[in-house]
Amino acid sequence: MSTRPRLFAKATGPTGKVYALTPDPESGQPQLEDIASDDINYANVDVRPLTAGAPITSPEPLDVLWTSQNYHDLKNLPPPVTTGVINAMLFATLKPGGLYIVIDHAAADDAPDDVTDTLHRIREAVVREEVEAAGFVFVEDSSVLRNPSDPRDLGVFDDAIRGNTDQFVLKFRKPE
Questions:
Q1: Which of 31, 117, 139, 166 has the highest CB neighbour count under 10 A?
Q2: For residue 144, with 0-12 CB atoms within 10 Å meaning exposed, 13-18 middle and 19 or more buried, which class applies?
Q3: Are 72 and 134 members of one domain?
């Protein structure tokens, strides 16, 4: 079971709210439904389906948006959905001053564009350029998930690197 929604549910406390977006609640992440159905411990988790092409909305402006190890998947969605469209929707969903955190598997700096599909990685510079193009301001990065021994030329599910990929953590802010 994924720990991220549970972690955020505990961090926001009983008066906070966690919206967990899932691309396919029927098959993709059933553990999110399990977490949300635990009314005693996780009553503040609201699982919402994410449908390609549909607007990303929330009942109120959000303080933080977080995507972990899946920004690269956004590059592989069918047209007319693009990362530009998605980043614009996320920008509109955040409060002024709100944060957008992106964690993903790092691709080599010279990797081809299709690395998002072939290796399930993405070039850090691509993410930064796209998120900033939506109006976000880059705040900082973190090396906490970096692994310099990852050659960044293997697929993330390859047994030689699985669970030990080089990952970047980027923090952006919506201007006030």
A1: 166
A2: exposed
A3: yes
